[in-house]
Structures are given as C-alpha cells and as structure tokens.
Amino acid sequence: MQDKPIIRSAIPKRRYQIGDHAVSLLGEIESGDARAFRYILAFVPTGKTEPCLYVLSELSPPREADLGRYRLRLVNETLSEVMDSDDRWGDLETFAEQALKLGIQALGLQREAVVRLM
Description:
Blueprint: E1 7-18, E2 21-31, E3 37-45, E4 53-59, E5 70-76, E6 80-86, H1 92-107, E7 114-116
Antiparallel strand pairs: 1-2, 1-7, 2-3, 3-4, 4-5, 5-6
C-alpha cells in the first residue's frame, strides 16, 4: 500500500463499527517516517489485521502551509490522494466527521449504520 502510515505509537481517540469494518481514530501519533500526523482514521475489515483504507490528517509541508496547516489524505491499495488542505483538519470533531464520510464513500458502506463504540 503506497503511502501507508508507519505508526510507532498512537492513542485511540474513538472506535466505530461500520458494517463489517472496525474503524479506529488515532491521535497523539508517533510516526516511523518523516511525516507528521495529527489524526489517522483506519478501516479494518472483519477477520483482517491490517487496515484496507486510511484517512489521514497530516502536517502540510512548509512550502504548502499557506494552503492550510493540515492535508486530508485518502490512502488505500491503489490510491494515495490529498483531498484538501486546511487548518480545520487539525480539529478532532471536524476531521472525524469528514474522514468517516470519505471512508464510507470509498468503501461503498453508505447503507451501513455507523456505531460509535468509544
């Protein structure tokens, strides 16, 4: 998976169940590469151990900071795309709402209930 985040440590902030996917929202992330993440939302299919999709709030490079402090990136097996750049992706509530929408759309889970577990 291209641009898969390397996570050394992170604190779970929220957990959800959406259809057959367990979803974790992580914060306080220590990255194992040069990227800095504010939040990571990971979708893990039932029976699997690795996420099939990530939505990331990552610190924008200094040359792009005028567009927004954070980039919202969608990452799966075939795609790694910056969806938006904005300061608002540093806010937990705003990120969680948009990241869930993006992940649900990308995985075709629109008909599934979103159950917040934590």
